[in-house]
Amino acid sequence: MPPIAVERWYAEIEASTGTLAGLVHGADLTRQVPTCPDWTLRQLATHVGRAHRWAAEIVSTRSAEFIPFRQVPDGRIPDDPALHAPWLRAGAARLIGAVREAGSDPVWTFTGLRPATFWARRMAHETAVHRADAEITAGRRPELDPDLAADAIDEWLGFLSGVTDPGQQADALPDGAVLHVHATDEGVDGEWLVRREGSALTVEHGHGKGDVALRGPAGRLLLVLVRRVPPDGPEVTVLGDPALLTGWLAATPF
Asked: How many other C-beta atoms are found inside a 10 Å radius of the C-beta of residue 174?
């Protein structure tokens, strides 16, 4: 896939946080989030604001070790409703500033030491999905930029590549089965083949035949793959064995 400029990730963090902040401002934060049924809107907003501060702490300290999520300073959304939106925006700004300053310096990530810009990508897509959660809670239809959505799909599937524990994500597909994901947006290079081989999943780019194929605009595909919308919507087409897709989604929660 063509690389996404790091400034696009910064812009996505800022824009999605701004949208979330607007939806939280003056809202009933006790409302349940239908796409995260264990969370209220307050818990959703707290998660996003704390995640930004957590990633910023890792980056700004150049930490080579995991930092516990709950040890991050200022990780609780303020009690004063007037401060909710500013608190969210401040976390995003802190994260963007930390990554800009660190650049390619190595820091802790889920997959070992990586350049600090890892966190720009990770938090851009994390924030976009949770912004979509808030929009769905408010009865709005989420819209995602196709190229960023395709990058988010690439990141999400990449996390699953090489899984070797047959009791976890590897069981998302039967041995030998292939899931084909195809983004249909004009100008977006987005096709992936996810294959189960023994106890491992592999992910490769390109066109090919799958036992089940998921086709549609990248934004809707992402929301299907992270289980925010069902795969039977009018914009998405499922070809082949739908039971394989059902099994995949059940085994790969976001």
From this structure: 12
* Cβ–Cβ under 8 Å, residues 180 and 241: no
8 Å CB contact between 145 and 11:
no
Pair 55, 114: CB distance under 8 Å:
no
How many domains does one find in the chain? 2
pLDDT digit string, tens, across residues 114-138: 999 999 999 999 999 999 999 999 9
* 166 and 75 housed in the same domain: no
Burial class (CB within 10 angstroms; exposed 0-12, middle 13-18, buried 19+) of 89: middle
pTM for this predicted structure: 0.94
Q: Is residue 156 part of a domain?
A: no
Query: What secondary structure does DSSP assign to 19-44, as a single string?
Result: HHHHHHTTS-TTSEETTEEEEEHHHH
List the domain range (segments joined by +) for residue 238.
162-251
Q: Element (H or E) spanning 106, and its range?
A: strand 106-107
